[in-house]
Every structure is written in structure tokens, then in C-alpha cells.
Amino acid sequence: MNNKDINFYSQMLHAKSENCKLLAILLDPDKIIWENLENIILKINQSPASHVFIGGSVVENNSIDQLILEIKQKTTLPIVLFPGNPSQISDQADAILFLSLLSGRNPDYLIEHQVQAAPILKQTKLEIISTGYILVESGNETAVARVSKTKPMDRENGSLVLATAQAGEMLGSKLIYLEAGSGAKKSIPLTVITLVSKNIGIPLIVGGGIVSLQGIQDAYNAGADLIVIGTAFENNIHFFDS
Ligand code: 1GP
Question: How far, in Å, from the CA of 32 to the mean position of ligand 1?
Fold first, then answer.
């Protein structure tokens, strides 16, 4: 069966219940070199990726629709929007992470962008997945912190990260995304991944600063259901070759 016949959230629930791990490669439309796209997709098809995520904190070009159409011609992997703001919505994708930045206290990223996005999303066929998005301190200022003007959570304070994730679940989030930030020096502490995954009932996405295959394995072992790899693949499309 084509994996597009199964919706994204069902895949996430299945991954969590069956302990079969998922992997998303994140493509930032601003950073894609179009001449390389064919090779990039070829390498994605050869990799263990189960999904392609599309998005970025500041996507400045208007090429998301075109990028997705091009990608869809060359892969059957589901395409999930991971938008930095409502301008990054595209009906060409299969699903969208409808994010609320729960770690921050900036109302624009908690609810304002979502209000702006709702009427646009109503016009699309996208599968919409409410996602509690939690930014955790990672050793350097990341684009998410800069653009959202919010502080990341203390990486040593796992219980506060957990309480935030649980609040998200109680508010109706269907997924929790623990984010260290793209290009983070330090990825999410394994202890925090384990604490959160063991104490929420919804699937867990982990991303930011994972730069080795061992790092992926460690985050899976700690309890991540889906891992997002952006920078490591962007810098080296042979990242998954071994
Ligand atoms: C960023 O979690 C993703 O939102 C991926 O981060 O670019 O560090 O892999 P990296």
C-alpha cells in the first residue's frame, strides 16, 4: 500500500504503539538549491526517511507550492508542512503541523498565527495536526528563539518541560514536538526525551542538533517516535549512507 493512503497521524499513533520509529528530513525552501533538487530527492528516497517536512523559521521565497510539486514528482513519501508562519501553508502538501509554541509567552506564536491560518486551512485538504511545540535551550541562540522572540526552556529543568508537554496534551495537542532549534549545538537531552515520552499519551517528535546516526538511535531509544533531521542532511546529502 502506498504510505500516502495512511494518514500522518495514524502513522504517528502506530509508531508510538508498535515502537516502530519514524524519520523526517526537513527541507527549508529558502536553503534549497534548485539545481540540486533531483539529487536531494534521490538521496531522500535511498534514506530511511518516512516523511519529508517542509518549512523554516523565515521562509522568504514564495516557492513552497512549486517546491512541493517538484518533490512529489520524484518521491512517494508524505509531505508535511512545518511552518514558521501562516504564509508557509500550501495545499500541495499532505498534512500540516498546526503548531503552538507552548514554551514561549509570545501570544503571536501561541494563538495569533493560528487565528490567521484557520480560514486559509479551511480552504485546503490538508490533514491538520495540533502540535504542542516546545523549544528547549541548546547552547546557542536558534532561529526559532530569534524569530519568535521567546526564550527556550531550561534544558536542566525536565519537570517543567514535562509539565508544558502535559499541559499541551490536556489542551488537545495531538503531538508534542521537542525542539532544540535548527543547527543547535546541543540536541534535546535524552533524559528529557525519556521523561516526556513516558509521561504523555501522545506521540513525540524530537528535532534540532542531531548530527549523527548514533544520535538518531539514542533519541529513538530514549523515546522519540519521530526524529527530524535538517542541517545534517542539508550539509551532507550522503549523511544516511553507511
Ligand atoms: C529544526 O528540528 C529541526 O526545526 C531540525 O533541526 O536542522 O538541527 O537538524 P536540525
Answer: 15
